Amino acid sequence: MTKSEILQKLANHELTVEEASRLLASTKGNTPSATTREREYLALYTRAHEAGMAAGNAATPTPMLWVVHPPLWGMTSTP
Question: What pLDDT band is residue 26 in, cutting at 50, 70 and 90?
Fold first, then answer.
């Protein structure tokens, strides 16, 4: 599995950060091994994505109201 495939599976929640880190560390033939910075990035990205998805799923939309007020002092802007 290539590095891009591992990252794609991580983004799709098909892999955990630990699994992705282990796979990235073991892929030495096609791609360089994962560095500490890459593992930290993957962990941060996953946490941020999960937090954003949880916030979006927990949110309750507030409907917008359209209110038309009568013209002030009975005057209209049209002739």
Answer: confident
* pLDDT at position 55 over 90: yes
pLDDT of residue 48: 92
Residue with tokens 């892929």: 27
Phi, psi of 57 (to 5 degrees): -70, -30
According to the 3-state scheme, what is the secondary structure of the chain?
Answer: CCHHHHHHHHHCCCCCHHHHHHHHHHCCCCCCCCCHHHHHHHHHHHHHHHHHHHHHHHCCCCCCCCCCCCCHHHCCCCC
Whether residue 1 has pLDDT greater than 90: no
| d(C-alpha 28, C-alpha 39), whole Å | 16
